[in-house]
Amino acid sequence: MSETHLNLRGLKCPLPALKTRKALQGVPSGGLLVVACTDPLAVIDIPALVNETGHSLEGQTEEAGALLFRIRKA
């Protein structure tokens, strides 16, 4: 399966969620999108987006001051 990385560090709400939604359109079905962002509201927004769109949140961690989300496209 393919893995795509998206660096959204420095962007503020609602841009991380909007750019994640757009990036998911280009990920093949079953592919993985790894999103890195620094916006603290992404902890709420990204999981809500994933739930709303029917994809799967495989992991959520913090690394080097950034939130990392691993999203598997449905």
UniProtKB/TrEMBL annotation:
GO molecular function, one term: transferase activity
Annotated protein name in UniProt: Sulfurtransferase TusA family protein
Record SUPFAM superfamilies: SirA-like
Family affiliation: Belongs to the sulfur carrier protein TusA family.
Residue span(s) of domain UPF0033: 6-30
Pfam annotation, one family: TusA
Keywords tagged on the record: Transferase
